[in-house]
Request: fold
Amino acid sequence: MLAAVSGFQMFHFAQIWLMYQLTSSPLYLGYVAAAIAVPGILLNLFGGLLADKLDNRRLIVVTELLAAGLVFLLATLTLFGVVNKWHVLIIAFLAGGVDTFNQPARQALFPHLIDRRVMLSAVALNSAIWQGTRIVAPAVAGVIIAVAGTEASLYVAAAGFLTMAAVIYGLRIPPIARGAPGSAAHEMLEGLKFIRKNSIFSSLLGMTFFNSFFGMAYVMLMPVFAVDILKVGAEGQGLLLSLGGVGALLATFWLSSRGNVSYKGLLIIGGAVMFGLSLAAFALTSRFVGYYSLALALMFVVGVCNSVYMISIQTSLQMLIPDGMRGRIMGFYGMTWSIMPLGGMQAGALANFVTAPFAIAVGGLAVAAYALGPGLLNRQVRNLGTLLRQAERSAAAGDSGRRVAPSVVDGS
Reply:
């Protein structure tokens, strides 16, 4: 995972850098983001369906090889000086499509590699790779580009995907039970019915949607805060985002040492509320107070709170979803993340009318309001710790978590 995620981060850094070199246009950077996001929105459900039907290990190997091939192609086009902006956009679109089949398969395979009693620690350590590489990998890519060129950074990224493929190919995993075969439309409809019947999943997926669409929109508007409001430039913007990443990483390590806490529901609700309120505080104090040190402190809190409740949500989903439905539900989960660029677009449009700080504050308050409304009012979310203990006992009894807690299955 460390090699693959580092490659993923370096690939995204290099393709954005390459596009700006080719066009000198911020608009085309938005096109790259859209090219990555659209396949995720359209295909994540199909990716989840395949994760339920096919051998996850083989699916991951194939998609990692395809991703490596696409990155290798872009690197070679760059090396020979024949790359243009359409190559970057097409490869970004295809790589985004491959990722929609890779991620649900990873999520579906993940619980079968560990003892589920340590699920929280495992998910937190997995998340630590994403948080850590978010801080380090772009800097490494920048150094490689400065020393050896953009194509060298892309070749290193491709090597990361190949490493993941080799490791997964060597895994030996016991057979995983599959659901009865059916048409694609029927299988996806079953997934929707399952979510509708079990309100715990719709509530947790709703929180993820609000986080992606409203909460994380601040990332797209950060240049406005750095340049026009706080007046700290690109270096100051980098430090703001890095402090958020450091906060998220520290929260990840804290969670990894806690095990499956009994107050998981309140941890999720409280984390979401604090994330939304601290994000609104960052936006408004930056606008009216303008202290850079205060902005840094609040961005650190934003990173901590976001990591606490999003890792807890992912852990809960992994513990409660039955194996036969895991790929499809995690496909829905992945789709909620794929809309993040669209969240940036809505925040940008709103900022044209009410200024960027107010647009970000509205997004933060929307996250907090959803947690205090549908989240807090849902008895299953409040009692999530009890449901997780039931699922843990079920796994320990020998069924490897193939059934969720009885109260969830019954939709009560």
About this structure: The chain is about 85% helix and 0% strand. Confidence is low (pLDDT under 50) at residues 399-412.
